[in-house]
Design a protein that fits this description.
Layout: H1 8-12, H2 20-34, H3 42-63, H4 65-84
Helix pairs in contact: 2-3
């Protein structure tokens, strides 16, 4: 089984039952805050690039209903495995 990506809900700062509008809004705010083109310092720019990538990946996962459902099911299965051990 492939490892789970970082929790996209935490990355975007939304609840697990967030609607599409809330996900889009959170994504928009974070992109404006962490876009690497807004930073001049090379070290900070690299950090912002990484943060921007995480935000983009989280958004792409949560905005697609099928991918979001797959992720949620993987998390449930992983939690069940941990509880069984």
């Amino acid at each position: 089984m492939s490892p789970l990506p970082p929790d996209p809900y935490k990355v975007l700062g939304v609840s697990k039952d967030a609607q599409t509008a809330a996900i889009r809004s959170a994504h928009r705010k974070l992109v404006l805050k962490c876009h690497p083109d807004k930073v001049q310092d090379p070290k900070l720019k690299a950090e912002k690039q990484d943060e921007f990538q995480r935000v983009q990946q989280a958004y792409e996962l949560l905005i697609d209903d099928a991918e979001r459902q797959k992720y949620d099911e993987k998390v449930k299965m992983e939690n069940l495995r941990k509880n069984m051990q």
